[in-house]
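Supplementary Text 2. Reproducibility record for the structural model of the 493-residue chain.

All settings were left at their defaults, and a single model was retained for analysis rather than an ensemble. We include the record here because the model underlies the residue-level annotations in Supplementary Table 4.
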Amino acid sequence: MTAVATTGPEVQTPTFQHQKRGRWLDHWEPDNEQFWESGGKLTARKNLFFSVFAENLGFSIWVIWGSVVTAMGAAGFGFLAGLGQGNPTAVSNALLLTSTPTLVGAMLRVPYTFAIPRFGGRAFTAFSAGMLLFPTLGLAYFVNQPETPMWVFMILAALAGVGGGNFSSSMANINFFYPEGKKGAALGINAAGGNMGVAQTQLLLPLVITLGTHIMAKDPAGYRFGITLAVLVWVPFILAAIFGALRYMDSISQAQSDGQSYKLALTNRHTWIMAFLYIGTFGSFIGFSFAFPTLLKANFPDLVEISWMSTLGNLAFLGAFVGSFSRPLGGWIGDRVGGAKITMSVFGGMALGIALIMASLSVKSFPLYLISFLLLFVLTGIGNGSAYRMIPMIFSAENKRRAMESGQDPAETTASAKRQAGAAIGVIGAVGASGGWLLQQALRLSNTHLGSMAPAFWAYAVAFLVMGGVTWWFYLRSSFAVDRVPSLAYANV
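Retained model, structure tokens:
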């Protein structure tokens, strides 16, 4: 409910009365301080809380196959038998199953962005959470049918990709609720909360699977029971997310999509340059997060014999965990020394991380392997934050350049630059997520056709060095996006 407080004969300041129950908001003015403090802030925080909850579950279901495939061979599914012994066919099939949700999630990010203005944040958050029931309940059923062919599980893996699309709809929704000066922190919390879903899944699923096998027996039936238990444990939380969104979240009537900004962003070369760089940062984070449990089991099968080490997913969850926590750090440092400088340094460090991973495999050192991968994950998180920090800076610099050339006041075109930056973020996020699929496919094809993943890893190192060079060429060798860039409130988005 919106009220109007009269402060003078001609001056009226809108105020806002916070309500717990969700509804359509016909008037929303977060940049007005009195509106914000009188109830707008509480409403925005309420929607942020339920948005983070739903998005976190989306990431959790998106990455669920990364842990499930490591137990399906023991559950009696022949196409994954021998994964722990490095069977090339099993490794290839596992990477195919883990990469499929990545690709579907990347493809859904653009339409999910447009869905918020079309259907409202409240309804679409409930819908997107409800979609998570299909891959979970489907997997719980078919994993108990030992004769189920691999193509059925491929469909279920594709359905899990809907969780990856939740990121874009959640970010687009929260973007409407917060004033310009507070968007960075709100979107940073939203993004980090989603990313943490990857780590919690990789920690909890192996624990629950092991618990299930102890309740039953360490035979195929026991493993199937453990997987079923590990999948169904998410269902009550999904139902809670649906209920919470419908009862407590709000939709903003004036939230409208800006098709013109998308057209301008799509024709701007910097959108595609940054999308290429984001493949290296976020694509690496999500790709290695999905593949890490499989890589650990394939390269160090003896760890399975170390009691609760296998219960902890062979520590695979640590990768996504440190990568999620380091993401805000990248934006924070980028605010102080420049996003492009940090991004270029990150790519150099990632190439070094790959070299350390290959060295650890050559000497069969698990501690070095784990430390090298954790370093790589930390760098991908920092790179995610610093690369996203660059996007509004680049579009702001472009705006200033065009304004100077045309003689316009830069302030008059600032709003357009911000809308284009927002549109570019959606496109860049979708392309970057597809990099996770490319990375896993490269690992799979290298293992299948060359008998080793080493060529793929060395190709990544070369690609990271190329991306560092591209960052320097376009954003550091001149004053572009460095000296002439104002500080905007999109850090850590």
